[in-house]
Every structure is written in C-alpha cells, then in structure tokens.
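During the practical work, I worked with a single protein chain and the tokens that describe its fold, as given directly below.
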Amino acid sequence: MTLLPSAIALGSNLGDSAAILQGAITALRNHPHIRVTAVSDWYETAPVGPPQPNYLNGCALLETDLAPEELLRVMLAIETQFGRQRRERWGPRHLDLDLLFFGDVVMTTPTLQIPHPHLQERAFVLVPLAEIAPTWQDPISGLTVAALLRKVDTSGVEWHAPFSGLQAQGIE
C-alpha cells in the first residue's frame, strides 16, 4: 500500500473549538486509511465573511492510501459528525476541514480543487502550515509554504495554544 502525503486545514468558531479540533484530529487518526503525521499549534483569527465569532485554526499533515475525492468524503463526514451545517458561504461553523495539498497533485473537479484555490492568500492557513511543513512546495507556483507565508499579512493570526495530543496519539 502506497501512502501519499496530504495537508489539511482545520477551523472552528462555534462550540468548544479546541475540543472540536482535537476531536477531528482523533477522528482522522482513527480512520484505517489515514495516518496523522503532524499537527500544528492552534491560532485564533478573525473570520472571513459575515459577522461571527473568531476562529481557532490549525493544520495537519496526513498520509493516506485514499484517492483525493475519497479523502474529501471522509473529511466531510467528520465535519458532519461535529455538527457542521452548510447554511451560508463563509458562515460560522463547528468544524471546517479543507484539503490543501495532496502530494504534488493538481486537479479541478466540480467538488474539489487541489491545491486549495485560496491557500496563497490565507494567513490563517499559511501560518500553521508553515509551522509543520515549511518546505512543502506548491505544485502550481513552485514556491514553498514558507515563501508563500512571506507574501501575506500575518498580523491577524494570533497563537492560541499548542496542540498537545501528539504523544498521546502516537504521533512522533
């Protein structure tokens, strides 16, 4: 079985966001076709979109033998498990999981675009992603995550708390 690396973003601004993000990592870790290899710290950021509470954001690196569309389905099921309801674009949510990178795949389907189409402009994604994958190279621009991060304003991204579940979850 060949495992391919992928990077995801996690966000929450409804309920106990820290517990929800931790629960999402646990759900990913417990999936038989996903191995969580790294998790960033959590960062608090202002929302994009309509007025709503601030978000808690982070990123995780995974290895999987699932196809990108299958990984997306797993991520959507985990969002639903944690109460995600899609009511308005960029509205508040209990859990948001976005597939950022899938190896060096570049693809666009009606339901999935890889790399994530807004990755390069979102400091709330690039800050935690650079923490765990600074040398990951965007297959479209050729720039590393660290280089992409240097191009955005990070003033609204505030460190919130460390992810403390690595050892307990068998991630080393």
